[in-house]
């Protein structure tokens, strides 16, 4: 007895369509996925924000007088790279102890400067005052100046960015 035969016949056109469609999908996947990853990776990339920044030779910083330093760091936000300048005051208490403070006022972010006659850092915006060690003493600033962790290696003073907040 003969079994009924089921056969699916594909004509040449359908076969070629299938093959071309398959090859197209492979090419799209091969090039498309890496391209998408390449395009979105900056947005996913996390900026390395902790870094040791060298300020200079410890020996050149006088004891008891705030010494200003400036440096620039790059900030990456998605596809955008921005140079941000920072200002700090290094205060050397004695031969070995040194503290470094941000010059950004903790009220609304104006830059403070050291006033030798007053022995205060003064914020020019709303007359906020801070003492030698960055403690807020008068005016609207709600807390002391931010402070940096420091280390000295081979006579060079380094600070760790970003600074830490004090209360
Ligand atoms: S920004 Fe410094 S006192 Fe207002």
**Heterogens:** FE2/S2 (inorganic) cluster
Binned strand content: 35-45%
Q: Please state how the strands of the largest beta sheet are arranged side by side.
A: 1-10-9-4-3-2
**How would a textbook summarize the main sheet?**
6 strands, antiparallel
Instruction: Say which CATH homologous superfamily of the largest domain is assigned.
Output: Rieske [2Fe-2S] iron-sulphur domain
By secondary-structure content and strand pairing, the structural class works out as: alpha+beta
Q: What is the CATH topology classification name of the largest domain? A: Rieske Iron-sulfur Protein
CATH class of the largest domain: Mainly Beta
- The total of helices stands at 1
Percent range of helical residues: 10-25%
Describe this structure as you would to a colleague:
The chain is α+β, with helices and mostly antiparallel strands and 167 residues long. It folds into 2 domains: 36 residues; 114 residues, 3-layer Sandwich (Rieske Iron-sulfur Protein). The strands form 2 sheets. Strands 1-10-9-4-3-2 form a 6-stranded antiparallel sheet, with no helix packed on it. FE2/S2 (inorganic) cluster (FES) binds next to loops.
